[in-house]
Design brief:
By secondary structure, this protein is α/β, with parallel strands linked by helices. Helix content is about 35%, strand content about 20%. The chain has 10 helices and 16 strands. The strands form 3 sheets. The chain has a 9-stranded mixed beta sheet, sandwiched between helices. The chain has a 5-stranded mixed beta sheet with strand order 11-15-14-12-13. Strand 14, helix 9 and strand 15 form a beta-alpha-beta unit. The longest helix is centred in the first third of the chain and has 19 residues.
């Protein structure tokens, strides 16, 4: 397909004109941006999905958990509801979206999780509550320019940096590469842990062409923890079948392939809602292996798979969850924390 992507060039040009005019109108204040009433950080990207925004949001939560009164805000992609909502103990992924549900399941009421398509109105709603938040983290709002955050963190993957990508539909960029200049920091995600100094400098030189001179460029990797059972009592085995419904599972596939015996990877689309036909496919694949492997799933998929278990599906199959978290070098982590302190106080 990529070989013929040049055929989509005229549509990419048209798309670029549309997004370019929109951004120009914001730049000259014809369209207004409103400063968030609460200290805020936007975590976003230029491309469509798969850069690791939610793990980065969770990283920021972990950095300031206990120090600040925290909240997160996203539109709740894929939810079946509309308007402004706050996550509650009885909330479901269908109600608030996959990523907000994942964050709420992890932190509970210790972190307030909100969803709302209109970020300006949602921030006003959050600010009007009796809770006094020190920081709100906005997931995937880099293109939502009606809101002006106190800090913008732009993510790009090491495997497919935005400077080598193209506008939709020819590539995966949602706006021009030059729009990266709105970022206060750029973070390369999913980097190899053994990334050398020379490669770091090469990447900085390539990406800095699109940034303001003072914008720091940082590097993060993914750290994978020990898989844990979705239901207690299940015994782990190194023979695995991966089930994933995320935008880009390749980094996870590589990790499992290097550290375990990955027999097969069954990939569904991002934000996939599992059905009975999916269960049938998964069961058939599982039963095709005589060594009786275990299923391993992502944290994002875990809560949806739990709903399948509650409905009576997959109960006899051992299912394990692969935890993961974002890691920075101590130097880059220090740079990021100092920058956040400057921006939000």
């Amino acid at each position: 397909m990529e070989r013929f992507s040049f055929l989509l060039y005229p549509f990419a040009v048209l798309y670029g004109w549309i997004t370019g005019i929109r951004n120009f109108l914001f730049d000259i204040n014809f369209f207004k941006s409103k400063l968030s009433p609460i200290p805020s950080i936007i975590v976003g990207n230029l491309s469509v999905g798969g850069t690791g925004k939610t793990p980065m949001v969770e990283y920021l939560i972990s950095q300031y958990f206990g120090e600040m009164k925290l909240a997160t805000l996203s539109r709740g992609y894929g939810r079946k509801t509309k308007g402004f909502l706050k996550a509650r103990p009885n909330s479901t992924p269908e109600e608030i979206g996959d990523e907000p549900f994942q964050i709420y399941q992890k932190y509970g009421d210790s972190v307030s999780v909100f969803v709302g398509e209109d970020r300006v109105k949602a921030l006003a709603e959050i600010n009007s509550t009796s809770e006094k938040f020190n920081l709100v983290i906005l997931d995937d709002a880099f293109q939502h320019r009606h809101v002006k955050a106190h800090m913008n963190i732009l993510l790009t993957t090491y495997q497919k940096p935005f400077y080598s990508d193209f506008l939709l539909p020819m590539g995966r960029l949602r706006e021009y590469r030059s729009c990266a200049k709105r970022a206060d920091a750029v973070v390369f995600t999913k980097c190899p842990k053994a990334l050398g100094i020379t490669e770091r400098e090469n990447q900085k030189q390539m990406v800095s062409k699109y940034l303001l001179s003072e914008t720091p460029v940082l590097f993060s990797s993914i750290s994978y923890g020990k898989p844990y059972p979705l239901v207690t009592g299940m015994k782990f085995k190194p023979d695995l079948i991966l089930i994933s419904g995320i935008a880009n599972p390749q980094t996870l596939i590589d990790h499992l392939d290097q550290n375990y015996n990955l027999l097969k990877s069954i990939r569904f689309g991002d934000h996939h809602d599992y059905t009975e036909s999916d269960v049938k496919e998964i069961t058939e694949v599982f039963e095709s292996f005589k060594e009786e492997p275990v299923l391993i799933i992502t944290q994002k998929d875990a809560d949806k798979v739990k709903l399948l278990l509650q409905s009576g599906f997959l109960k006899e199959i051992p299912i394990f969850v692969q935890p993961m978290e974002v890691q920075f070098s101590s130097e880059d982590e220090s740079i990021l924390r100092k920058l956040i302190a400057q921006k939000i106080g």
